[in-house]
């Protein structure tokens, strides 16, 4: 017992802080004052862990500070500057569009309600498809511009949008934290768009449109188109369509009812028929076939062919013959008469061949159709120009799985079957006849600082003598007592022409009416095409009357500069 007490005495004083208590606090002890809690000294591992963690945090903050100040410092500075800067758009002026005589066709009109100028177009009917229209700069729901430019949608506005548009400018304004302006600096000066002179004559175009509109109203056609060119330069002097949309209404975009009616109108006011529509040309192709027949020396132009209104083709398999009819009994005709009277039988015979008379055949005709530019775009592709179509045996086989027939050749010789052409193609081809062999590209923009430079597509290797015969035939269309465009026989102007009627629709109840021509006959300067679409087959008053009335109106008003 004494030994035990002696041992405890020798161990020294009792250190109550190192005494292990039970896991439960002794009753009455205050745990918030650490009573009854065991405390242990901090280990070296814990100290090292805290030290390493602190170093990592300091390294991370140092790296981020380096990135913000050194790596991205300049970029962030510029961004902060930008946050304190407000940018204003300085809208430029879009280029003005004039006709060849500096008459304004499209211009800018300023209004206090808009930051930019509104586009305005000539009120005279007949120019919408040519000029087109624009849409304006657009704002989002926060009243901020997300589209800062005019956008040309069709016509000249679309084709020459980049030239007309120019470039907008910008002004930067510094502002304080309360967004009060401090200074203003122009970052980019606006550049106004360039003005354009078109080759068209506004007066000539307006007159042509007026007569086309009058004709389809009187005769019950759905629409019409007309083009006039300078045959030596390819300049388009008039290009118009009926009906048309209103460029001012479409640019403003506010008259929703009228705009909606354009989309549902069966007369297709959005269609630029002059180069965006392809139509069966009918007999207006006969002068081009005649040029090929003469060039191949298949028949003398003075050979007299007996016709009686019907061509009877025997069936080689012994069945009933096939009858190909003319519009009338034209009697005995030579080539000049055949053009003047529009004899189908003559062109069946020498276009497709019959009896002892060799014809060009479908491939021979296609050769000359190609030379005159049919089935090809003329060069105004920015206007959604169509290429038209000349049918071939291969096309028929591939499309319908059927072989080519003699009748297909015959109908191709008179511009029907699946033959398609645009008015612009026909007027350019007519210009090639007028100049006796030079096929040009059309030109729509005029450079007033230089003489027009013709863009020659090709020179046709057909003799002047052959073209003379074609000229004579087209002149007789106007002069002959049975000519099909006698209304153009006017005392103050000499016109050569060719008419055509292409039947269409169920039971051929509808027709397209065409007239092509050039003037003055003795020294051709101008060529024209007029076309009326989808009129009654009972109509006997050809669309050539539109040119007659236009010439008469010009003469009555003393506008005779185009007659010389």
Question: Could you write a compact summary of the structure shown?
Answer:
This protein is of the alpha+beta class.
Report on the structure:
Helix 7 (202-219) packs across helix 19, helix 11 packs across helix 14 and helix 13 (344-352) packs across helix 16. The protein is an alpha+beta fold and 564 residues long. Residues 1-11 and 16-26 have low confidence and may be disordered. The chain has 2 domains: 86-198, Penicillin-binding protein 2a (Domain 2) (Alpha-Beta Complex); 202-556, DD-peptidase/beta-lactamase superfamily (Beta-lactamase, 3-Layer(aba) Sandwich), CATH 3.40.710.10. The protein is elongated. The protein is 34% helix and 20% strand.
What tags apply to this protein structure?
564 residues, alpha+beta, Penicillin-binding protein 2a (Domain 2), Beta-lactamase, 5-stranded mixed sheet, 19 helices, 34% helix, elongated, disordered N terminus
**Ends distance:** 154 Å
What is the beta-strand fraction? 15-25%
CATH topology (level 3) name of the largest domain? Beta-lactamase
Average pLDDT score: 88
Tell me the structural class: alpha+beta
Work out the radius of gyration. 42 Å
Number of distinct helices: 19
Write the layout of secondary structure elements.
Layout: H1 2-10, H2 44-71, H3 73-83, E1 85-90, E2 97-98, E3 104-109, E4 118-121, H4 128-131, E5 134-135, E6 138-139, E7 145-147, E8 151-152, H5 155-159, H6 161-165, E9 169-175, E10 181-188, E11 196-198, H7 202-219, E12 223-230, E13 236-242, H8 247-252, H9 256-264, H10 273-276, H11 286-295, E14 305-306, E15 310-313, E16 322-325, E17 332-333, H12 335-341, H13 344-352, H14 361-371, H15 393-400, H16 406-413, H17 423-434, E18 438-440, E19 445-446, E20 456-459, H18 464-479, E21 496-504, E22 510-519, E23 526-536, H19 544-556
Parallel strand pairs: 2-11
Antiparallel strand pairs: 1-9, 2-3, 3-4, 5-8, 6-7, 9-10, 11-19, 12-13, 12-23, 14-17, 15-16, 18-20, 21-22, 22-23
Helix pairs in contact: 7-19, 11-14, 11-18, 12-18, 13-16
């Amino acid at each position: 017992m004494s030994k035990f007490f002696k041992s405890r005495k020798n161990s020294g004083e009792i250190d109550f802080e190192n005494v292990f208590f039970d896991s439960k606090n002794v009753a009455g002890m205050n745990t918030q004052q650490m009573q009854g809690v065991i405390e242990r000294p901090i280990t070296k591992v814990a100290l090292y862990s805290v030290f390493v963690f602190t170093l990592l945090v300091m390294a991370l903050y140092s790296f981020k500070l380096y990135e913000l100040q050194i790596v991205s410092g300049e970029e962030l500075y510029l961004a902060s500057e930008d946050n304190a800067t407000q940018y204003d758009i300085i809208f430029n002026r879009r280029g003005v569009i004039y006709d060849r005589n500096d008459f304004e066709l499209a211009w800018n009109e300023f209004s206090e309600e808009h930051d930019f100028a509104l586009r305005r177009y000539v009120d005279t009917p007949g120019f919408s498809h040519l000029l087109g229209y624009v849409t304006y700069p657009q704002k989002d729901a926060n009243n901020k511009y997300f589209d800062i430019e005019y956008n040309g949608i069709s016509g000249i506005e679309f084709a020459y949008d980049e030239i007309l548009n120019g470039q907008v400018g910008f002004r930067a304004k510094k502002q304080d934290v309360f967004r009060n302006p401090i200074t203003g600096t122009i970052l980019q000066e606006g550049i106004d768009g360039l003005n354009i002179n078109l080759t068209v004559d506004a007066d000539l175009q307006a007159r042509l449109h007026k007569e086309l509109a009058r004709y389809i109203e009187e005769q019950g056609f759905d629409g019409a188109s007309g083009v006039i060119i300078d045959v030596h330069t390819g300049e388009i002097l008039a290009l118009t369509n009926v009906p048309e949309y209103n460029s001012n209404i479409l640019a403003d975009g506010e008259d929703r009812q009228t705009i909606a009616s354009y989309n549902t109108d069966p007369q297709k006011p959005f269609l630029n028929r002059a180069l965006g529509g392809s139509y069966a040309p009918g007999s207006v192709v006969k002068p081009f076939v005649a040029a090929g027949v003469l060039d191949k020396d298949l028949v003398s132009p003075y050979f007299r062919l007996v016709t009686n209104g019907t061509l009877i083709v025997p069936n080689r398999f012994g069945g009933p013959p096939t009858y190909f009819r003319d519009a009338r009994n034209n009697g005995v005709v030579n080539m000049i008469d055949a053009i003047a009277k529009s004899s189908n039988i003559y062109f069946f015979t020498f276009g497709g061949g019959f009896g002892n008379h060799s014809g060009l055949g479908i491939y021979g005709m296609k050769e000359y159709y190609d030379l005159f530019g049919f089935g090809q775009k003329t060069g105004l592709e920015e206007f959604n120009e169509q290429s038209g179509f000349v049918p071939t045996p291969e096309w028929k086989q591939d499309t319908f799985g059927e072989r080519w027939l003699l009748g297909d050749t015959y109908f191709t010789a008179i511009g029907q079957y699946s033959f398609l052409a645009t008015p612009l193609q026909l007027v350019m081809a007519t210009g090639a006849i007028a100049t006796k062999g030079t096929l040009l590209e059309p030109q729509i923009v005029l450079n007033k600082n230089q003489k027009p430079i013709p863009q020659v597509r090709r020179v046709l290797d057909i003799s002047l003598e052959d073209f003379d015969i074609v000229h004579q035939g087209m002149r007789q269309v106007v002069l002959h007592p049975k000519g099909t465009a006698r209304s153009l026989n006017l005392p103050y102007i000499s016109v050569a022409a060719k008419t055509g009627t292409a039947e269409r629709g169920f039971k051929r109840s509808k027709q397209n009416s065409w007239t092509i021509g050039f003037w003055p006959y003795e020294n051709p300067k101008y060529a024209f095409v007029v076309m009326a679409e989808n009129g009654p087959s009972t109509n006997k008053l050809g669309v050539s009357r539109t040119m007659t009335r236009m010439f008469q109106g010009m003469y009555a008003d003393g506008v005779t500069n185009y007659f010389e």
